[in-house]
């Protein structure tokens, strides 16, 4: 997802001139580590001290990170290999809402959430601004640092190439398509956003429009489960991964008239048992290495534009992502809330 703003980091080179005094100046002692500070500089001074503090804590606890979702399996392994910090994984398939509701022990240190859930629960998080903070779009980060976007995706149509290539959601009502959403739209965010993508008209969501389209498919007996479908409506990173695993049997398109996008955001728990490890995780995830690892999972790094300008983006992998038709339509929180309310009232009775 194209990041609309970025800030170039200035490199400050300090050199000593010939003939300078050889008298050494005592180094200024570093302040004590504050593992719950707002930034790397404020709490640790540098990455070495952050890494040391995280190693002293001994582990990091995460929740809701399936290994096959945006390459989280590879990211978790790379984090442990790089820093030697053990990762405890809780409920990999937990939804955003479930992550915050889960009465589990040990408590999670960090969260990966949809934007609406993060905004609604901002008071549960410990503010922290990663080193790449200025590269993130203003509209997908909380000004206080409570939450901030890590990666984005477009809603897409994945399809078996033996059926005609659909170019819009309206095409799916034509004969020959058996269609699946990625879950129940009353419970699964990906399925809900699939309905909302189908509801777009000139960039504005009309929930009734999306429900009616899937209602027509349901009444025709052509709305089914993914294993039986020749079309799956899901995020493009999910469909792109499916296509990479089955290059002769799957294609992906992002409809030109429905470029719905969404970000997943990161947050640190206010009661994180391992606050330094939590901050090290975020620094890693938002580093050039972490962002490229997310892109390897076909997600769109939130820092992509700034990384591209600095020559740090993996452009070979970027070329493998589905081509978007243009800037994404991002639902506002009121639009998301209105859509969920409408589906709660109408989905079950309209779609059978």
Explained architecture:
It is a single chain. With 352 residues, this protein is of the alpha/beta class. It folds into two domains: 40-153 and 262-318, Periplasmic binding protein-like II (D-Maltodextrin-Binding Protein, domain 2, 3-Layer(aba) Sandwich), CATH 3.40.190.10; 154-261 and 326-350, D-Maltodextrin-Binding Protein, domain 2. 34% of the residues lie in helices and 16% in strands. The protein has 13 helices and twelve strands. The protein has helices at 40-43, 47-57, 72-83, 96-101, 115-120, 189-198, 207-219, 236-245, 275-285, 288-296, 304-309, 315-318, 333-350; strands at 59-63, 86-90, 110-114, 148-159, 179-181, 200-201, 204-205, 231-235, 251-253, 260-268, 300-301, 329-330. Strands 3, 4, 5, 8, 9, 10, 11 and 12 form an eight-stranded mixed β-sheet that branches. α6 crosses α7. The chain is elongated, with a radius of gyration of 22 Å.
Number of strands: 12
The name of the CATH topology of the largest domain is D-Maltodextrin-Binding Protein, domain 2
**What is the number of independent domains?**
2
- Which structural class is indicated by helix and strand composition? alpha/beta
In the CATH hierarchy, the architecture of the largest domain is 3-Layer(aba) Sandwich
Helix share bin: 25-40%
Q: How many H/I helices?
A: 13
Element pattern in H and E: HHEHEHEHEEHEEHEHEEHHEHHEH
* Strand fraction: 15-25%
Q: What characterizes the major β-sheet?
A: 8 strands, mixed
Mean pLDDT across residues? 90
Quaternary structure state of the chains depicted = single chain
